[in-house]
């Protein structure tokens, strides 16, 4: 959920006098930098959201952090990769998290235990083994499993990954959003897509009469001359007060 490179974190200052330059006093502060520092940062953000919404599941909290993340830096420019190029979804995931915005995401994508069991089926595990792991004697793998194409698309996740999109063919992904904002809310979809990648969202509007209600939609991808390789973009739902961004990565073959 939280990849990170060169993430800074506070640390206890060193007490070793050899670490202090000659003529200088020991510092009262210290930092460490590393990939693993992303984990405690996001764990703290998740705990912050949980304190405001104790009834939310872990996947709802993850969704709130992902869909409210920003893809622009503090200067208003697109987040860059370490090469200086504009970062893609594979560089930065959903973007840089904002715990404050995550307190009021508007919509969330609740990933259930069944989603993860289906994931194991799509990956190639037999239904008998999944039943043993889950303890659910009545579980059956979904139709079409195993399937490398459905591993990432068949889960109600706040992002979309399409591992193979061939020319002249379409891939349709379904998602179900839950309203955690005000009642009588209407969300409209906008699309960010690179040239050559066709994308259609049905329906284009989601209407929620009450809080905690859900609405399903489909996103269909097609190649209309897109370059081979991964293409990146996002579907964003907005009611005027909330912006719910779900990034996607589509591999054109």
TrEMBL record:
Peptidase S8/S53 domain segment(s): 27-75
Domain Subtilisin-like protease fibronectin type-III, chain residue ranges per copy: 155-250
One annotated GO molecular function: serine-type endopeptidase activity
GO biological process: proteolysis
Presence of keyword Metal-binding: no
Pfam family, one: fn3_6
Alphabetical keyword list: Hydrolase, Protease, Serine protease, Signal
UniProt key word Transmembrane: no
Gene3D superfamilies found in the cross-reference section: 2.60.40.2310, Peptidase S8/S53 domain
Family: Belongs to the peptidase S8 family.
Name of the featured protein: Subtilisin-like protease
């Amino acid at each position: 959920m939280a990849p990170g490179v060169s993430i800074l974190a506070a640390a206890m200052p060193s007490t070793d006098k050899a670490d202090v330059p000659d003529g200088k006093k020991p510092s009262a502060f210290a930092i460490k930098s590393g990939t693993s520092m992303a984990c405690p940062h996001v764990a703290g953000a998740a705990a912050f959201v949980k304190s405001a919404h104790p009834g939310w599941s872990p996947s709802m909290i993850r969704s709130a952090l992902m869909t409210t993340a920003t893809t622009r830096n503090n200067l208003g420019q697109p987040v860059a990769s370490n090469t200086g190029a504009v970062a893609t979804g594979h560089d930065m995931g959903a973007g840089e998290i904002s715990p404050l915005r995550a307190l009021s995401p508007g919509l969330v994508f609740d990933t259930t235990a069944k989603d993860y069991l289906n994931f194991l089926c799509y990956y190639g595990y037999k239904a008998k083994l999944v039943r043993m792991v889950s303890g659910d004697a009545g579980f059956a793998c979904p139709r079409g499993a195993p399937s490398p194409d459905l591993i990432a698309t068949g889960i109600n996740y706040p992002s979309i990954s399409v591992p193979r999109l061939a020319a002249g063919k379409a891939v349709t992904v379904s998602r179900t959003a839950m309203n955690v904002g005000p009642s009588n809310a209407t969300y409209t979809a906008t699309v960010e897509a690179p040239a050559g990648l066709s994308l259609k969202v049905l329906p284009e509007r989601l209407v929620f009469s009450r809080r905690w209600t859900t609405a399903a939609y489909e996103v269909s991808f097609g190649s209309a001359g897109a370059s081979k390789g991964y293409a990146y973009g996002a579907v964003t739902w907005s009611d005027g007060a909330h912006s719910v961004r779900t990034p996607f990565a589509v591999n054109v073959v």
